[in-house]
């Protein structure tokens, strides 16, 4: 039985599993947060309606206590990150949410800022102040020990999830590649996103969570 779905329904040949929105703590968590920041500082608010037709990739990592930045850098699945960057160029219904967990005695805020600079452009990062929800989300994915990494792709509309880990990314990658092949490059969308990242418009009352420098 899986914590995401509450009942076993996995299709072994595709790696798929079915889940309802109401039984998914991961989806509930991102709706309950005040905002999720993109890597360039823009703050985005999600609710059930805005998520209803999206593909959400959750990327969850438990940071070991020693040499955190070196370990985090070495454990990034670079090919997955590149694929996600490409998906942002061709789809409006794809989002990646990065979640990092670490021991309380370490500076999680600085690590999350570093993750924001290394994660795929335009992706989302669960902020440092949401420590409780970060822990809940990691526990939902069984990311319980330092060095563990899990990914979960959710097709919210159809209620389908696909799992992936450091040693089992093939099914997840195949699903993402299929999404990419089903899409075509929209130069206007791509250009607008590049301009938005280079010159983000952050309201004065909002502080950029990932300032340069």
Question: Any key phrases for this structure?
Answer:
two-stranded antiparallel sheet; 37% helix; single chain; alpha/beta; globular; 8 helices; six-stranded mixed beta sheet; 8 strands; Glutaredoxin; 213 residues
Could you give the topology of this structure?
Layout: E1 16-18, H1 25-32, E2 36-37, E3 43-44, H2 48-51, E4 55-63, H3 68-75, H4 78-90, E5 94-102, H5 108-118, E6 124-125, H6 131-140, E7 149-155, E8 160-165, H7 170-181, H8 187-198
Parallel strand pairs: 4-5, 5-6
Antiparallel strand pairs: 1-8, 2-3, 4-7, 7-8
Helix pairs in contact: 3-5, 4-7
Describe the structure in your own words:
With 213 residues, the protein is of the alpha/beta class. It has a single domain (16-198), classed as Glutaredoxin (3-Layer(aba) Sandwich), CATH 3.40.30. It has helices at residues 25-32, 48-51, 68-75, 78-90, 108-118, 131-140, 170-181, 187-198; strands at residues 16-18, 36-37, 43-44, 55-63, 94-102, 124-125, 149-155, 160-165. The chain has a 6-stranded mixed beta sheet with strand order 1-8-7-4-5-6, sandwiched between helices. It has a two-stranded antiparallel ribbon with strand order 2-3. Strand 7 and strand 8 form a beta hairpin. Helix 3 (68-75) runs parallel beside helix 5 and helix 4 packs parallel to helix 7 (170-181). The N and C termini lie far apart (45 Å). 33% of the residues are buried. Residues 1-14 have low confidence and may be disordered.
């Amino acid at each position: 039985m899986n914590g995401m779905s509450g009942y076993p329904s996995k299709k072994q040949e595709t790696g798929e599993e079915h889940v309802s929105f109401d039984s998914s703590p991961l989806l509930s968590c991102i709706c309950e947060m005040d905002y999720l920041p993109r890597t360039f500082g823009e703050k985005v608010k999600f609710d059930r309606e805005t998520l209803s037709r999206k593909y959400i990739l959750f990327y969850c990592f438990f940071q070991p206590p020693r040499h955190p930045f070196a370990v985090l850098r070495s454990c990034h699945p670079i090919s997955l990150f590149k694929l996600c960057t490409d998906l942002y160029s061709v789809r409006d219904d794809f989002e990646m949410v990065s979640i990092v967990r670490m021991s309380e005695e370490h500076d999680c805020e600085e690590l999350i800022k570093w993750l924001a600079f290394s994660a795929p452009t335009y992706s989302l990062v669960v902020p440092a102040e949401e420590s409780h929800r970060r822990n809940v989300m990691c526990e939902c994915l069984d990311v319980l020990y330092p060095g563990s990494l899990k990914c979960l792709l959710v097709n919210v509309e159809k209620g389908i999830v696909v799992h992936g880990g450091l040693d089992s990314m093939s099914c997840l990658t195949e699903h993402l590649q299929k999404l990419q092949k089903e899409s075509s490059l929209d130069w206007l969308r791509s250009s607008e996103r590049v301009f938005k990242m280079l010159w983000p418009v952050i309201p004065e009352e909002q502080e950029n969570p990932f300032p340069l420098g």
